[in-house]
Please model this.
Amino acid sequence: MRGYFLFAAKRFLQLAVVVFAGTSAAFLVAHFSPISPVETIIGRVSGQSSFSPTAVESLRATLTELFGYDQPLWQQYLNFWGRFIQGDLGPSLIAFPTPAMELVMRALPWTVGLLTVAIVISWILGNLLGGLAGYFQDNRILKSIGVVAIGIQPIPYYIIAFLLVILFGYVWPVMPISGGFAMSVRPAWSVDFVLSVLWHSLLPAFSLVVAGIGTWFFGMRALVSNIVTEDYVTYADLAGVDRRTVVGGYVMRNALVPQLTALAMALGGIFSGTIITEQVFNYPGLGSLLIRAVNGGDSGLVLAVSCVAVIAVASAIFIIDLLHPLLDPRVRVG
Amino acid sequence: MLTTFRDLFRYNIEFRIGIVLVAIVTVFAGLSWFSPYPPEMIYVVVPDQPPSAEYWFGTNSRGQDLFWNLTFAFRNTLGFGLLVALLSRIISITVGMTAGYLGGWTDRALMFVNDIFVALPIFPILILFYFVLRNDLDMVTLAIIMACLGWPFDARLIRSVALGLRHREFTRQAIFAGMNPARIMFQEHLPFVMPIVFSTAMANMIWSIGFEVTLGVLGFTNLNIPTIGTTLYWANNHSALVVGTWWWIIIPVVLIVIAFLGLFLLAVSMNEHIDPRSRLRRMGTGV
Amino acid sequence: MSDPILTVEGLKAYYRVGQFGKNLDIRAVDDVTMQIERGEIYGIAGESSSGKTSLIKVLAAAIRPPLQVIDGSVRYDFGGRIIDPTKASKAELAEIRWKHLSYIMQGSMSVLNPVRRIEQTFRDFAQRPLGLSGAAFRARVEEHLDHLKLPTSVLRSYPHELSGGMRQRVTIGLATVCRPEFMIADEPTTALDVVVQKEVLSLLRTVQQEMGASIIFVTHDMSVHANMTDRIGIVYAGRLVEEGPTRTLFTQPKHPYTAHLVASLPMIGDTRPRPALEGRPPSLADPPKGCRFHPRCPMATEICSREVPPLESVGDRHRSACWHADEVRPLVEPAFDKAAGGVRA
Model:
């Protein structure tokens, strides 16, 4: 048990460093943005009605103080951390004066939900099929699945999502291709709403599953075709151990350990894929928000989304890492 | 190394298909040097013409001959992928071999940094860079940024190979013979690491080109440079599918999938070649 | 002595490798005939890649492509239940495995599933053949381990938590818990250090004597053979070249290859240089004509390179396949009595 705590502590340290480094980098990059949020707001406000030059000047002063741009960089950096810990990253521009963090928190559950479902499905399905394909190497069906997967694997997220939109939006319009839920239902914990959310998440989730499943399939197939030559599998076969036990408890079970590590390592990339998928399906998650923020020149919001993304991905990796020793008894020692 | 390629070409169907596909797009990209139109010119031909004998891939709504325009797009995109692969190879070989060969604290420190890079969601960071640099984000800058983000997976793989080499007899002999670590690493060990460097380079190209396309589609790169991403951006911008200029989308998509498939097959077949156990199985059952 | 538990006749098993359009036969087991009696420990000796591993693969019904049985028969007699593992169906084989026929494998480090506790492995292997469930099964396993003087706490351990010797003892426990009549032990002690090796061997011997089981004991280590086996079969290049009681083989070898193997044993107080065998074992894909040992044999004559010597009786339960069996003399003083006291000091 002590070993496990040590292991968890080490992983937690890593999580902290990742979050610190990631958010600091995001702060710095955003800081050097040539787009000044102050000028953007002024431009937007003064575009709507005429202002006297003195009014513009005082608005500029107020906004500069509000964003803290009058202070030196290190002071701004410290302020950033002080506010960040309280979950406050200033107002957004695209929905001024709604706080950027509020927009992010509204979008976060959509992305987390979509990603969790898509990752769980593609990981389980990909590993199962890949494992079977590695064990039953002469099975025709599994071989042809492999050929199909080779064809799909290199297609980027964007194109898969786009093809689905064309297919189900124009050619055979039976599925919703835009939004997180139907316009006609009110967001509340009702059956209608939940069903609508699920119905709308189907295509985006499907495109993520299609794009992601190949990685797991090939990884697992390669792992399994190596594991079947391990002594403990040969020995279990010689002992007449039940076939299902050998496939499940010996072959697949041992291949799952590296596949779990691979999942942790792939999360960042999968998150990147979601951004584009959300954009294509106009899904109300973090990705769509990020793109809106960039197009609206909203540096505070871009910063907020980036920071939350770094934290979310790092935390997910942390959780998966904590599962690792449960799957592999050898990790528990140290 | 050359015999490896020859063997692969002779006996591995995936490798052969991969080579052919990559060759197709490479030759296509090479045609850009013979283009009658400079890539940035618009409205040089009649817009919105479907593929015909005169315009093989049709023309787009911006009055460009899609065939010649795409040759530039592929030259830029492939060149970009190659540059990222090259730069990130330098980082991953250096980090991976140093960590694997020296071991101990160096190894632990490097792998700690490595894991941090693995955990970073790259896309928001790229978007952040675009946000700051805007149209200054040209292909080379983007390639350098991507290379700095795209090495950790491969560094880890290379490290595991280098770790195995450290305990081999010839390494000990080299140490006793007084070779310095850098020479041992690059003269004695590099040849063993090369196959994995090549296979990960292919995977890395798929990865970086995928990001380039994605960024381009969203309009988050310099839109005046023709790449696959910006081609698709302009097609979307002119609602190509709604207007009915389908060739503007379908043709680049098919070509990029050919490129991806080719690179992917090369990576897969080389991987298989590297792992002797799967090769043995192939010999045994693949009669 | 006419109640064999295992009868092998004219067995041929080749690796059929088709690579890059060429077909290649590797004759790993070529025309082997032998019998193993109830309750005896039969040793198989030979250099690495002499075909001994392929032979026991066939005997253990672990034939996987590219290994194929080309000809001959294998016949087990488990108390009247006759079975040929080269022809039996998977279901039939599943019924005899572990219940009648068990196996101790080379490389104790990797034969136990690293992610399963020992108890779970025992369940996987022995629950079905024993036909016990739950507490009764556990009680039986604990009783068995107790008997082998193994702590029952190993059941709760994972393989990586045990030492190499302990792991091999657990494997022996695993192979004997169903009290099979026949066991195949493939280099069971090769990876262990000498002290542990001795303990593991004596454990195996004790269990074997109690159960009255037969064992095929494969190792290249002649000193282990001297200590463990009742009879030995010498395998060279896929063929059985000599077979006889262990003592006879050590004192009066009737094949020049056996004479060399015996002579290669180190003995205390003996400082004479040993006659080394020239050359390498032949390729099994293209073995020499005639006697396969003739290119390396100091006694070879013209007939040896032309005709295959038959395996013929040269004494009591003693067979040899050599044209010059009568002329073979031990290369060193017969020192078996010393050997029996512990060749390996």
Observations:
- The CA atoms of residues 89 and 165 of chain A lie 35 Å apart.
- The mean pLDDT of chain A is 83.
- The first helix of chain A runs from residue 2 to 31.
- Chain A touches chain C through 23 residues (CB under 8 Å).
